[in-house]
Amino acid sequence: MWEKVRLGDYIQLLGGGTPSKDVEAYWNGDIPWVSVKDFKEDHITSTQDLITIEGVKNSATRIIPADTLLIATRMAVGKVAINTVDVAINQDIKAITCNKELFPKFLFYFFKANEQHLQSLASGATVKGIKINHITDLAIPLPPIPVQQRIADILDKADALRRKDQELLKKYDQLAQAIFIDMFGDPVKNEKGWEVKPFEHFVTFDMKMTTDFDKHADLPHIGVRNIEKESGKLIGYKSVREEGLESGKYYFTDKHIIYSKIRPNLNKVALPNFHGLCSADSYPLLPTRNTNKVFFAFLLRSEHFLDFISGFSNRANIPKVNKSQLSKYEGISPPIELQNLFANKVKLINSMKGKINIADSEQLFHSLLYKSFNV
Q1: Of 185, 199, 258, 280, whose CB count within 10 A is highest?
Q2: For residues 7 and 142, is the Cβ–Cβ distance under 8 A?
Q3: What 8-state DSSP symbol labels residue 227?
Q4: Which helix (H) or strand (E) holds 77?
Q5: Which residues sit opposite 320 in a β-bridge?
Q6: Confidence band (pLDDT; 50, 70, 90) for 315?
């Protein structure tokens, strides 16, 4: 393994700032201004906010040239990105330049491998952040530049593979949404003139609670955290026995929809294909004979429903919706035969998605990442 050195001896860190929000002349210019909300991808090509040259001159921000490594030191602690255009940065971001012994893309992946470590060092009562020495005191392996470049190239290829898989999955999800709109139209405009029915026309609340965890020990337990937002994919769940449950849970079957009543804006709607127990922070919904559960799950994930239900989530700490609020929803009700046809098309799309082994490409990337830096 290569000798590890102190990172601070090989880099320079530059900070930024925020022009006064009270001075209109500093904003809506033509200079991209990076904040943590722009760290959505590995490359920053545009920003949500733009400032003027006057804003740069009258604040602590500075212009950072394209192809510079940026790291978030507050809020999105440890996240890194590379700007593809000249940008200004705010005080939560640091720009990093490397000396001739350190290849920037190699350092980029080093930070990727150490993101969780940096997050563990963050402190702060309301907004967590790290100090400069948390970055500069990191020990980084330092092989010769040609080796750093080879490692970065290998990681680039592994990252491209997993991103290709992720993009393909996204396109399949977009296809399912497009088919929904093609068959049923916009649920808000209802240009196809479907009957509009109340919530109970589609589903019933089927909340059979149990604390008999010995009887159900081998069944899966689905908590709200196990439902991926928007997609509804069930992730990282364990058995009732493994969870060591104590409070009451709801029983569900493969006929149910699991709807998370916590933070409805996260849009967590799952379609299990097995029996199990789910958190009391969710509702097991049983479709009526009028409803195909695949169709109604898509309706629950639609902007129409989200706009409706988000109006009720007004609790300050953990926004939550209740049965009474859900029951006020009214939605389009196409014929069950058409709903079934849609469900069959979604089933075909899901079978195609199943052929994409995203887990393998993710595992390959992370395995190479951690082996490269011996994290």
Answers
A1: 258
A2: no
A3: B
A4: none
A5: 262
A6: very low
